[in-house]
Design brief:
The radius of gyration is 23 Å and the shape is globular. The two termini are 40 Å apart. A hairpin with a 2-residue loop joins strand 1 and strand 2. 44% of the residues are buried. Helix content is 69%, strand content 2%. Helix 2 runs parallel beside helix 13, helix 5 runs antiparallel to helix 6 and helix 7 crosses helix 11. The longest helix has 27 residues. By secondary structure, it is an all-alpha fold.
Length: 357
């Protein structure tokens, strides 16, 4: 014979938890929705899409959608690791110029060594990852703010990009490597396009989607993802419970470096040559995309999906202004307005989530 426990009742006599284990409480769909970091950015993306759909007739064309996705992917590939780094409580101001460094190393090494371009691509990967490891090691060893560390790296890379390019090539741009062995296969991987439903989609869109999926899996399904949130929330507390803070932060910086390598190879194999001064200022756009997507400046909160939505907003805004035939000089104004509005909306969503918790 089995005994059935009487139903637990609240103080008012209604069925409830009665002070039972709060982990057994069911979370309502609304509460879960309000707790998502990317909610505010999704609402903002819907508003931007509707705005340009009404303001520009050509915005809704299939070909225009492909162009918007491409513009978003060039930012989104870097916004993903930058978002993870911000969740971990750090910044990387060298991310923009590191993309250019990656492309320059591939191009100049292949050209000067008259090697297969894949050799240059491999050397570029090693160099780029080394820069990411340098940022992480310097941060964890010196205890200086990531702002200072990566600002120093930014300045060094900017000078090296220009100095080495002029020293080796005699100009501020690299020599073309379009006729070298391996160029066509490398272009297929980093700068080709596929046709889906009559719409040309750049391969960077596929890279972007794959990186978002991978980063989401890491954050939500792996121990390393738990470490990222713990380090960003409180590094000292995380260290006290056994989280390898140093390894986690170095790994995050190397993740930024890997995506910078991918973006750099796309830059190189799309245009054959690289201008040494490119990339300056893009690091702020990556951070903006992550913040619009729900990442907090203070760390410990955010998502990879949110960074993708933030990059998509960037793509819609940059191309929507063109399709609406407005003066593109206003682009930075709209981007800044979107940053402020998204930040305010994200803050409101978090307060609502905490109020209903």
């Amino acid at each position: 014979m089995t005994a059935t426990a009487p139903p637990v009742k609240d103080k008012d006599g209604a069925p409830g938890t009665g002070g039972g284990d709060e982990r057994l409480l069911r979370t309502s769909p609304l509460r879960r929705l309000l707790g998502r970091p990317e909610l505010g950015s999704v609402v903002g993306a819907a508003a931007v899409f509707l705005f340009f759909a009404l303001a520009a007739d050509s915005f809704l064309r299939a070909s225009s959608f492909g162009t918007v996705l491409y513009a978003a992917s060039t930012i989104g590939i870097m916004a993903v690791p930058v978002a993870l780094l911000m969740i971990g409580g750090e910044f990387d101001l060298s991310a923009g110029v590191l993309v250019t460094t990656s492309a320059l190393v591939s191009s100049m090494f292949s050209y000067q060594m008259t090697a297969n371009v894949w050799v240059g691509v491999a050397v570029s990967l090693l160099v780029t990852l080394a820069v990411g490891a340098f940022n992480g090691v310097m941060l964890t060893r010196t205890k200086l703010p990531s702002f200072i560390i990566t600002l120093g790296t930014f300045l060094m890379l900017t000078g090296m990009n220009l100095g080495f390019t002029k020293l080796i090539s005699g100009t501020v741009s690299t020599k073309t490597i379009a006729d070298m062995e391996g160029f066509s296969s490398a272009r297929t991987l980093f700068a080709s396009h596929v046709t889906v439903g009559g719409v040309d989609l750049k391969v960077t869109i596929l890279w972007w989607f794959a990186l978002v999926a991978l980063a989401t899996w890491i954050l939500l399904r792996t121990r390393f993802g738990n470490w990222i949130f713990a380090v960003g929330g409180n590094a000292d507390a995380a260290r006290a419970v056994g989280v390898p803070v140093r390894t986690t932060k170095i790994g995050l910086y190397m993740g930024v470096a890997f995506c910078a390598w991918v973006s750099g190879q796309h830059l190189l194999f799309s245009f054959d040559v690289v201008q040494s001064g490119e990339g300056v200022g893009n690091e702020l756009i990556y951070i903006i995309a992550a913040v619009i997507g729900g990442c907090l400046i203070t760390g410990g909160y955010g998502s990879a999906i949110g960074s993708a939505v933030g990059a998509f907003i960037f793509g819609m805004t940059s191309k929507g202004i063109v399709y609406a035939e407005w003066n593109p000089d206003w682009f930075k104004f709209f981007l800044g307005a979107m940053l402020l509005l998204a930040t305010l909306l994200n803050a409101w969503v978090r307060k609502r989530a905490e109020a209903t918790a």
